[in-house]
Specification:
186 residues, mainly alpha, AhpD-like, 2 domains
Length: 186
């Protein structure tokens, strides 16, 4: 990593509570959390935003949210994000064949029309030369209402921020995903 975390006892007590939850959830404190927490206010805000986007009452299916985050992570060359989001995708019972096909979802018959619409939109938002065309919006609207589109857009923006943060600081994977390399775009 290009920036090293502080020793755990140097973080404020309320941030160490977040770390304890990460340890219960993932079996380890997440390296990006240790880096974000070097700024307690930024960490707290990012953690709250993540919680809002990943809540059970989200209008977006949990597996779809994970597919979108893995795909964005691949595009942004974030090995940590591919690892942790790939593990979440596995836990959400997505078929291994589908997970492994995610990088080339356009050529695969494994993805539903809803997943295709969300992935196409995620790629259009993520690539800097992407264009949000009327066709993309029409496809989205056939599967999602406006509230869900806003939530999907927020998730895409958050994952872009997160994966670019981790890639810039060279945060390595922590070994969460049990699948072979899920790859990243060239």
């Amino acid at each position: 990593m290009r920036v090293q975390p502080k020793p755990l006892n140097q973080y404020p007590w309320f941030i160490r509570l977040f770390f304890a939850k990460q340890k219960r959830t993932y079996g380890a404190v997440l390296d990006p959390g240790l880096l974000w927490a070097r700024s307690k206010w930024v960490f707290t805000t990012v953690a709250l935003l993540y919680g809002a986007l990943n809540r059970k009452a989200s209008p977006l299916d949990p597996a779809l949210r994970s597919m979108v985050t893995v795909r964005i992570s691949q595009i942004n060359h974030c090995a940590f994000c591919v690892d942790v989001n790939g593990a979440t995708l596995e836990k959400r019972k997505v078929d291994e064949e589908k997970i492994l096909a995610l990088q080339e979802w356009r050529q695969s018959t494994l993805f539903t029309p809803t997943e295709r619409a969300a992935l196409e939109y995620a790629e259009a938002v993520t690539y800097t030369d992407g264009d949000i065309t009327e066709a993309i919006l029409t496809a989205l609207r056939s599967h999602f209402d406006d509230d869900a589109i806003v939530e999907l857009t927020g998730l895409i923006a958050f994952q872009n921020m997160s994966s670019k943060f981790n890639a810039a600081l060279d945060v390595p994977p922590q070994g969460f995903c049990q699948l072979p390399d899920l790859g990243m775009d060239d």
